[in-house]
Specification:
heterodimer; A: 113 residues; mainly beta; five-stranded antiparallel sheet; 11 strands; 54% strand; B: 113 residues; four-stranded antiparallel sheet
Amino acid sequence: GENVEQHPSTLSVQEGDSAVIKCTYSDSASNYFPWYKQELGKRPQLIIDIRSNVGEKKDQRIAVTLNKTAKHFSLHITETQPEDSAVYFCAASIDMGRRALTFGSGTRLQVQP
Amino acid sequence: DSGVTQTPKHLITATGQRVTLRCSPRSGDLSVYWYQQSLDQGLQFLIQYYNGEERAKGNILERFSAQQFPDLHSELNLSSLELGDSALYFCASSVHLNTGELFFGEGSRLTVL
């Protein structure tokens, strides 16, 4: 099955700085890579996703990059704000395949005001 | 509000007991997924159903079972409970199979004493 590794496990940045979270996956057949944000005591929510036919996707202050050759994808958050503080999970799956999303272990991001 | 309803929100029980967690997916969603989140842990995939049929299994213990009913609601049954089963159990739903956004419920927090 798929194995998704996520780093770092915790990340502390100053408000206004950028944050980068990195993930690697093991199954070269994986082609769908979403990122979920989980605020304290709340449910995970999708913030951005990317499919393997593109290398980068942006949505305002967040962006995701994908390197299929290295089986590596990253989440970039620019101009961080205190409300960005949460646990972020990367995940991988085969679109329409017989395997559900495999999540990484999560990164706890703390944005210091 | 994601549209996914999970009951109960909190459950406290003793070792050796059996509990049932219930999930109602978003209207129109055919796929239901169950994930387990232990303290400070990631989201571990348990099992997935699509339109009433089991489609994928993760690291689900033999003591655990699930089903999806004709009205598309799902139940996760946990038996012979152990202390280590204490966790937050999330149900999620999506329109299609293993593609697009997963909509998570608020979770059922199980405490085994």
